[in-house]
Amino acid sequence: MHKYANSFPYYRRWSLLCFYFDKNENISSLKYILASPNIVQDVEFTEDYIILSRSYGINNDSKLEFYPNVLNNKPQKKINNISVWFLDVPEKTINILPMSEGISKIDNSLYILFESGALKYKNFCKSPTEYIWKLNIEILSKKEH
Fold first, then answer.
1. Which of 81, 97, 79, 93 is nearest to 35 (CA)?
2. Residue range 83-117, pLDDT digits in tens
3. Nearest 10 degrees: CA dihedral of 131, 47, 25, 101?
4. Which residue, among 96, 97, 98, 74, has the nearest Cα to 85 in the 3D structure?
5. Phi, psi of 70 (to 5 degrees)
6. Total-model pTM
7. For residue 41, what is the enclosing H or E element?
8. Given CA atoms 121, 125, 131, 134 in this order, what sign does their dihedral have?
9. Cα–Cα distance, 10 to 82 (Å, whole number)
10. What phi, psi does 19 have (nearest 5°)?
11. 97, 62 contact by CB (below 8 A)
12. Is 62 helix (H, G, I), strand (E, B) or coil?
């Protein structure tokens, strides 16, 4: 399965479109839609959470947002027989450096790539970094008491 973040004019939200691929890596079908907030750079899934990397601008903090994994529930809507869920309110939000882009989950770690280290932004960004961050998902997703 593949994930794709794109603008989709449904309830004036962005949407994450999730596809199946055939053996030749052609899109075979649209599996489901996650209606999400705007400025989403990437998404990752855990058993309990859907994690969004959100950022906009060279001087604005990026955010990692942890939403309950709605895919464990019945769809909230159907469009042409395609399941739709809404990511409304994150359970937890963590501010991180500006210009977060891709995120990847490997084992129990979340890797975050930042665009701020690119030559185009390096001298102008509030807090540029050339590093890929590796964070522990268990620690990140702990609920605060």
1. 79
2. 889 998 999 999 999 999 899 999 999 999 999 88
3. -30
4. 74
5. -70, -15
6. 0.83
7. strand 40-45
8. negative
9. 13
10. -115, 155
11. yes
12. strand
